[in-house]
Design goal:
The protein is an alpha/beta fold and 161 residues long. The protein is 39% helix and 18% strand. The protein contains 6 helices and 6 strands, in the order βααβββαβαβαα.
């Protein structure tokens, strides 16, 4: 079943990258978070909505952007990321497909749990994100049978060594 992850953006960003370093901008941190999602084993099989607190100076061009299965939303006052996540959950047509990612127990997790929606801490989700997509290590192409010339050639090489 495809899961729709509703993510408390700055909460997950902090769990993934820690507090911002001196020269790091929030924008570069958000881009690292998106890259971690796109490189994870969860992508592109599932849907992601990442909700950030926002003001006009944080992301002035638009409040929402989508890139394939990833949608980024910046909450606008009077909403904040917490209240917008709760609204998304309350309005979801298929709440059984949702999983909310947040470590904010007081404002999000308890309320979402009461709605019967699955939750995951940001720290646990980081572990899931960091599992890279596995490339098949098994070559599934059909192998041709060696010809008599191939067999004779390799037999000569190994017999003479």
């Amino acid at each position: 079943m495809q899961v729709h992850f509703i993510i408390d953006g700055y909460n997950l960003l902090h769990a993934l990258c820690g507090p911002p370093a001196g020269g790091d901008s929030l924008e570069s941190g958000r881009e690292r978070l998106l890259l971690a999602i796109k490189n994870s084993s969860l992508y592109p099989r599932h849907q992601f909505t990442i909700v950030f607190d926002g003001t006009a100076d944080v992301y002035p061009r638009r409040e929402k952007r989508s890139d394939g299965p990833v949608t980024v939303i910046f909450a606008r006052p009077p909403d904040n990321a917490d209240s917008l996540i709760l609204k998304i959950c309350a309005r979801a047509p298929n709440p059984e497909r949702l999983e909310v990612v947040s470590s904010d127990r007081a404002h999000i997790v308890k309320k979402v749990d009461a709605m019967g929606i699955q939750t995951c801490s940001a720290e646990s989700f980081v572990g899931r994100l960091l599992r890279k997509r596995k490339k098949s290590s098994v070559d599934t192409r059909e192998k041709p049978e060696p010809s008599r010339n191939d067999t004779a050639y390799w037999s000569d090489i190994f017999d003479n060594s």
